[in-house]
Amino acid sequence: MGAFRGWLQKMFGIPAGASEKNDTVPESIDPPVVEKPTPYEVIRVQPTPNPEAFQFIMNRPVIADGTLTFESADDAKGDPLGEALFEIFGVVNVFLKENFVTVTKSNVVGWHTVMETVGETIQEHLKFYERENPAAENKPAIDPVLEGFNKGDFPGFSDEEKTKVIDALLDAAIRPALSNDGGGIDVLGIEGSVVKIHYQGACGSCPSSTTGTLSYIENFLREAVHPDLQVQAN
Prior knowledge:
By secondary structure, the protein is α+β, with helices and mostly antiparallel strands. The chain has helices at 3-12, 80-86, 111-125, 159-173, 175-180, 212-224; strands at 42-47, 53-58, 67-70, 91-97, 100-105, 183-191, 194-201, 230-233. The chain folds into two domains: 3-125, Scaffold protein Nfu/NifU, N-terminal domain (Ribosomal Protein S8, Chain: A, domain 1), CATH 3.30.1370; 140-233, GMP Synthetase, Chain A, domain 3, CATH 3.30.300.130. The chain has a five-stranded antiparallel β-sheet, covered by helices on one side. Strands 6-7-8 form a three-stranded mixed β-sheet.
C-alpha cells in the first residue's frame, strides 16, 4: 500500500486494505511515512470553499514567486506536472502558489475516485518552478505604487496607472485570504469604471466567487479607490 493512500485512509476513511486484526481508521492524520525519498511530499490535504477543489500542501515551496495556472490540457502542454494531472479524468484546473498545489475537478467525478491519483501524481511530477523575478524575495512591505497614493487623484490616472494601483491594493488586502483558500485573482485591466478580474485556482468555479467574494472585492475597491467602481469577473 502506498504511503499517500495510507494517509488518505486516515484522513477520509477511503478503503485501503485494512488489517484483519485492526480494521478501524486511526484518528491521527500524521503525514505518511515516505517509502522512497522524493523531492516533494504532500504533508496536508485540505478542502477549500469550492467543493470541487482541494489544496495539496507540500513540504517546501513549489514556486519562487507569483502563481502558475493551467486551465486546460492545452494550457498544460510541455509541462510534466500539468500534463500528468490533466490525464486524470475530471481534472479541470491546476493552480500553484507558495507551497501548495490546488487541483479543481469536474462535478461529474467524486473526490474519492481521484484523490489518491492526484496526490501521487503531484509527488511524482512536481518540480520547483523558477520565476523571472529574483528580486521578489526583497519585495518591500509596502508596494511603491501605494506610497503617497491619494484616492482623490485616481480619476486623473491613466488606465495603466489605475490597474497598477488596484493590483497593488488587491495584493495587500485580498490575495492573502484567497491564497489561504487555494485560489487567487488576476487583474485584467480597467475600462471606464469597470475593473475586470479573473479568478484563479479554487476561486475559478467556486459558487461564492460570483456572489459574496465579488461583492466584497467591489465594496473594498469602492471604499479604497473610488465609489463608482464596478468589478466584473471574466
